[in-house]
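2024-03-11 09:14:02 DEBUG pipeline.ingest accepted 1 chain
2024-03-11 09:14:02 DEBUG pipeline.ingest length=536
2024-03-11 09:14:03 DEBUG pipeline.predict start
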Amino acid sequence: MAPETAAAASPSTIGLSKTGPGSVLAGLAAGFTLRATNPAGGTAAPEYNTSFRDVLAPGVTYRAGSTVPADAGDPTVVTRQVEFPANSGRTVPQQTLIWSNVADLPVNGELTLRYQAVPDADLYPVGATFANTAQDWASTDPRLVPKFTSAGAPVDGATIAAGPARTVETSVTAITIAKSDDASPEGKLLRGVHDDVSVYSLLVTNNGVDPTTGIQVVDLVPADEEFLACGDVDNSADVEYPGAPTLGQGRRPADGCLQPDRVETVTDPAPLTGVWTRVTWTIPDLPAKATYTLRYAAAVPLRAQTTDFGGPTPGTGGAQAADLDNNGGASTRQVGGGQAVPNTASVSGTYTGATTGDPTGATGTPVSDSDTLTVTAKDVRVLKTVRTDGTGWAKQDRFVEGDLATYRLEVDTSEYTSASDIVLTDVLPNGVCPVVTADQWSALVADHPVLAGVQGCTAGEARARRSTTAARSATRPSPTTRPPARSPRRSRRSPRSPRSPPCSSPTRCGCWSPTPAAPSPVPTPAPATPSPTPPR
C-alpha cells in the first residue's frame, strides 16, 4: 500500500544534532555525523521510520559507500544545477542527500548516521568555507514513511514530525597535525619514567592538491612530563631516587624517532603559562596527499620540572631532554582522580597552491595547525573492557538482547606507589545482572542484605532465552510488509541497549549457573614496589 500523507505536519518531539570537522584538507573528504533523538518527557511518543536529509553546499559531493552503519545504505542523491559563486554565471551541481526509513526511535532512543563528502578543490581552495544543513523526520504512525519530492523537498503529513535544521560550517586548510600516544588507555597514564614510558606519535598530513614546504613541528611538553627523546639517553647527573635505574632503558619508539633541532625549557610560552619543554623538529617537504610521522618517548616523573637545573643550564641542542636535574617542582602524585597533563603540538609551513588570498599560488601562503592531547597522571588505574562475540576486548561492543557479555576489570599501580586494601566497585545499570554461581550469589547476599529474597535465573534459562530471541528475529516481518499495528522497532545504534535474560521470577537481579563456569583469566596486579621505595 502506498504511504499516506496529509496537509499539515504534526508537532515535533524528535531532535537532531549535526557535527563535522572545523576544517578539512583541500581536495580530501570530510566526515559528518547526524544524531536523531527522541527525548523522554512531555508529549514524547515512539517515532517510526526516521529519515534524514542533508543539503550539501554547491560543489560538495557525497563519497559513495561512506555511510555508517552500512545497513543504512547510500542515500538517494538529488542533484540540481545552481549558480556558484553568486553572480559568476557559472553553474555547478548541488547535492541533496536523503536517507529514507533508516530506523525507528523509541522514547529516549537515539540514532546515529555518519558519512563523508568531498569539496571541489577548485571551488573551495585553502581558506574557503562551506556549509551543510541537515534535518530529520519521523512518523507517529508505523505505517507511514516520511516522503520527499523529486527535488528533495519534504512532504508534510499529519503524522510526520520534523526535527530542527542543523548547519555545520567547515573551512578548507592545507596541513594538519594529530597527536596520540600508546600507553594511556581511557586517557589514563601511570606515573613512572622507567616503568611506564609512553610513545607519542605526531602525524602530519598534507592536503590533496599541492605541496607544503619548509615544515616545522613544535611540541610543548608540560612540566608534569619528562621528554625522553628517542628513549635511549640519560642526561641526568644522578638517578631519580635511591636504587632507581638510569634513564634510557625503558620503552622507546620502534620507528619514526627523529632527533629534534632544539630542546629547551621555557616559561609562559604564549598563550600558555607555567614551565614547559619546547621541542622543535624540521621535517621534509610534503607533496599532495603525503604524510609524515614523528615519534618520541615521554613519561610522568616523580616531581615536575622547573627552570633550575642545580647548575649551568644545559644547551638546547638536546641536552635538556631526559634530564631529571631540574625536576625539583611539585609532586606529581595522584590526588583525587589524578592530574591532567595536556600536550600541545603544532605544525607550520608554506603552502604552494592557490588560496583565497593568493588565487594563483604564486607567492606561497603560511599555513599551520595544532592539536592537544590531554592524559591524566595516575598512581592507581582501573580499565574496563567488554566482549560479546568471544574475540577481542573492546571499550564498546554490540550487546544483543538476551545475550551474555563478559567484562574485564584491570587494576594497575604506578612505578612510584604500592597499593593495598583496594575496593573495586562496578555499578551495573538496571536490567543488566551478573552471571554467578549459587555460592557466589550467597556471598553477594551476605555482603549486601538488600538482595535477600531476590531470585535469579539459571544459565540454562539464559541460553533458552537467546535461542528464542534468535528464532523470533528470524521470523520478524520485513519493513515492507508491516502489520497494521506494532510496537516500536529498536533503533539501529551500537552498542544496543543491554537487557538481561528474563527469568520466571518477577524480582530478579543475578542470573546464576548451577555449576561454576571457568572464568576468563583476569590478571591480578601485584603492587608496584620499587626497591627501595622512592619518595612519594
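2024-03-11 09:14:41 DEBUG pipeline.report Residues 1-9, 457-509, 512-533 have pLDDT under 50 and may be disordered.
2024-03-11 09:14:41 DEBUG pipeline.predict end
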